[in-house]
Amino acid sequence: MSEPVSADADDGPVAIISGGGPFPFVVADAVMRHGRPVLLFAVRGWTDPAAVARYPHHWAWLGDFGWFRRTAKAAGVRDVVFIGTMLRPKLRQLRPDLATLSYLPRLVRLLRGGDDHLLSGIGKVFEENGFRLLGAHQVAPEILIPEGTLGRHVPSEQDRADIDRGLAVIRVIGPFDIGQAVVVAENYVLAVEAAEGTDRMLARVADLRRERRVPLSGKVGVLVKGPKPHQDRRLDLPSIGAATIRAAEAAGLAGVAVEARGAITADLADFVAAADAAGLFVVGVAAEARGSA
Asked: Which residues contact 285 (CB under 8 A, 6 or more apart)?
């Protein structure tokens, strides 16, 4: 796992390339608490304009790499963090500047694969241009999910067996760069996350149960999330929050398990409170618990 990095302000501001949702601002606040300035590069169409106004920032299109390189280096930026929601773009949405155009054949190849393939390839472009790519969890370690049972509710022995199987499934499908989440109930794999994302996968499980396509009743089954083996954890750790708890509750699940220190949340207290209110357990499972169930 990547170690936290120095909070020395002499290293210059941390550039946060910001997508949608609360994470860019949670990370920015944490970086500043740790003693370093931040400079947000807010992606047009994704980042919340009202929230970004509270920070030093620039607005950018996805294809503004040449402009970013000049602007960031002029500001003394060495360290870059990618964080926030963003769907993979079509080429025509990039609005590439001249520098980005020079990388276009490479970008076309990167778009022909899974998310880790795409993001790790983009990360290499930044590194080749003199930037140090950091994970959001390295500059804001408080966003990592800790190990152990996090709320009032505790998983049963069957739940723990389902968690083991879910982690094993993620380990097996990880090399195919498919997804970071599965749903397992009574040793039965109900769903595997693909391009639709976790919440839509959970909605699919809710539909299966509503249509009686699976023979389950009551609160049963676990949403299991964890990073893919060998993925670049600086770029795409699985995230979870209160909205995921609500979707898991609607799917009739008993709880949620994530790899401890291998997943992030914008507000741990809110996440746990939502699980407690819904009657779901939440646990952080040590990475070495990934078994071969």
From this structure: 147, 163, 167, 226, 257, 258, 259, 260
